[in-house]
Design goal:
It is flat and about 110 Å long. Strands 3, 4, 7, 9 and 10 form a five-stranded antiparallel β-sheet that branches. By secondary structure, the chain is α+β, with helices and mostly antiparallel strands. A hairpin with a 5-residue loop joins β3 and β4. Helix content is 55%, strand content 22%.
């Protein structure tokens, strides 16, 4: 019996050791799995961080390249402005002193730009604003110099130029009137809206009519849409095109475009009116943002269907 008990005890001991060894192996396997998971997670995080850093670096490099181009363009523009200032001259000593002061400002700004890192966005934008200011000041001086140098010549030429422009304007008006009369005969029985009495006025700061170019703040175009009992009722847009003595169209926005007769035209200003077949008076205002010169100004009035009429204004 003792021998049997000893064997049983020995067998139990061996079985216990075997079981203990199995638990150790299992724990070791679990630890290895956790370690592999940690390594994989860290690798993924490293890849993501590398991708983020690469994106940030590329984006910053692109921004620096763009700012470098901006700096180069700004430098070229300022050098061009420097050349323009260099050729400005006047017989007026006071004006020459002011020109020298502005030339010095241009030189200083150019030197600051050259010494500034292209990546300094705020400085580059600041210098762009300063360049715009210097350019505006130069335009003012150009106007002053031209006024001083050409005043006498302009006074002599004004009368003849005005007479010539008036003749040309009258010829254009007569030609357009003839065309309008012929067209009116064709559309008399039609439904197209017709205009008459197109007139251009100058308005001063007190909202009074004036023909003095230096006092004008607005230009007003007035006309009448003629009665037409069979014309379509509803909103109608009237477009006006105002041209200066040099023939250049005046407009508040180059994107002001309308289509007439299959052709796209830029207009000065427009206004929508409710047309119900009765005669309607329409006035369209254009705010002048620059000093007007003397001479004859012409205006053309349109709807999308065609020309309504023309008029002109002689400014003194």
């Amino acid at each position: 019996m003792e021998d049997i008990d000893k064997k049983d005890a020995a067998g139990t001991a061996v079985t216990g050791k075997a079981a203990g060894g199995g638990n150790d192996n299992k724990k070791s396997g679990d630890n290895g799995s956790r370690l592999r998971i940690v390594v994989i997670v860290l690798a993924v995080i490293a890849v993501v961080l590398a991708a983020v850093f690469a994106y940030v670096w590329v984006d910053r490099q692109k921004m620096i390249d763009d700012l470098t181009v901006d700096k180069e363009n700004l430098t070229q523009e300022l050098m061009a402005l420097q050349d323009e200032y260099a050729v400005l001259s006047s017989d007026n000593d006071s004006l020459n002193v002011q020109l020298d002061r502005e030339r010095e400002k241009v030189d200083q700004l150019l030197e600051r730009i050259k010494q500034t890192d292209a990546a300094n966005r705020s400085k580059i934008r600041q210098y762009e604003k300063e360049l715009g200011t210097l350019r505006s000041i130069m335009k003012h001086y150009i106007f002053q110099i031209d006024s001083l140098n050409t005043l006498n010549m302009e006074l002599r030429k004004d009368a003849e130029q005005a007479r010539q422009e008036a003749r040309q304007s009258k010829e254009r008006y007569e030609e357009l009137s003839k065309t309008t009369d012929e067209y009116a005969k064709l559309v008399e029985q039609g439904s197209e809206i017709k205009g008459r009495g197109v007139t251009l006025y100058g308005i001063n700061a007190s909202n009074k009519d004036t023909d003095r170019s230096s006092r004008i703040k607005k230009l007003r175009t007035c006309l009448s849409l003629v009665e037409n009992s069979i014309a379509p009722r509803g909103p109608v847009t009237v477009y006006v095109r105002i041209k200066g003595p040099d023939g250049i169209l005046m407009t508040s926005n180059p994107q002001n475009i309308f289509e007439v007769g299959g052709e796209q035209l830029v207009y000065t200003e427009s206004r929508e009116v409710d047309y119900q077949g009765d005669e309607v008076e329409v006035c369209v205002y254009y705010a002048v943002d620059q000093k007007l010169v003397k001479g004859v100004y012409t205006v053309e009035a349109y709807t999308a269907s065609g020309l309504l009429g023309t008029g002109d204004l002689l400014l003194k």
